Amino acid sequence: MPLPSIGSILGDQMTSEVSSSYNSLSGSDIRAVIGHIPFAEIQAVSFSITREKAPVYTMGSPDVRAFSRNKRGIAGSLIWINFDRHALLNVVRKAAGKFIANIDDIRPQFRTAESQFMLETAIFDAQTERGTGIPVGATIDEATMPRVMAISGALGGFKESAVPWYSDQILPFDITLAGANEIGAAASMKIFGVEILNEGNGVSIDDAVSEMQATFVARMVEPWMAVATPFKMPSTGGM
Questions:
Q1: How far apart are CA 100 and CA 157, in angstroms?
Q2: Would you give the distance in Å from CA 135 to the centre of its chain?
Q3: 115 and 133 in a common domain
Q4: Of 185, 182, 178, which Cα lies nearest the Cα of 228?
Q5: C-alpha–C-alpha distance, residues 32 and 15, integer Å
Q6: Is 132 a domain residue?
Q7: Measured between alpha carbons, how far is 11 from 8 in angstroms, rounded to an integer?
């Protein structure tokens, strides 16, 4: 069943050509999607594109002769709300995202399924552990011997697939921002190959909500573009 157009909802006699010619999107109109999973806890996404361009001078004139074009970099930041769990890592777990970890990495002991809750005292009794079962207090020889044996036996024997427990362990992902306003105009953009660098979090008596911030670098940015929707009112104008 086709969706009704904005003109049929409001009536063609009531709609204004001005409203269909110039439209904008606010933060409340835009949603972020990581892969194919909505990142509902996101509060803000920002990025910057920088490039090295150097002036070229020659003797005999103080004026620049030309500009050489060099490397480009894309970096930005994410801000999201933590309700009762790490929101970004939770999205990765929903997507069954993993990375290749060392089998003897020290990691959190508790890795419960998304639909399960830990016991009240679980986090107080939590310990760090190694995947190989070697105690954290083991000597260097005891800790490295399984890795040496694994390398001598098989190249991948000292690695295993694991769920990330730090944001910087997440493999590169894409962020799609898509929005539609109440008039029916829509636009989207995409950030490709996002790699998390740093993350930070803190709580205090003055904080009413718990936020987390992360900085990232990226490979490429697809700029904002107007997209067609079933609700777009016919018009010769654009975004």
A1: 12
A2: 34
A3: yes
A4: 185
A5: 30
A6: yes
A7: 5
Q: How many helical (H) and strand (E) elements, i.e. helices and strands, does the chain have? A: 4, 12
> Is 107 found in the same domain as 92?
no
Could you write out the DSSP letters of every residue in 2-26? PPPPHHHHH-TTT--HHHHHS----
212 and 175 in one domain? Answer: yes
Compute the distance between CA of residue 100 and CA of residue 92 in angstroms, rounded to an integer: 14
* Residues of the domain holding 145: 99-162
Is residue 84 assigned to a domain?
yes
Q: What is the pLDDT of residues 12-55, one digit of tens each?
A: 556 666 666 677 889 999 999 998 899 999 999 999 999 999 99
Prediction pTM value = 0.74
- Is 61 within a domain? no
In the block, residue with structure tokens 């002991």? 109
Same domain, 74 and 157: no
**DSSP label of 232:** P
Q: How confident is the model at residue 109 (pLDDT cuts 50, 70, 90)?
A: low
User: Rounded to 5 degrees, what are φ and ψ at 29?
Assistant: -95, -10
Residues 124 and 194 in one domain: no
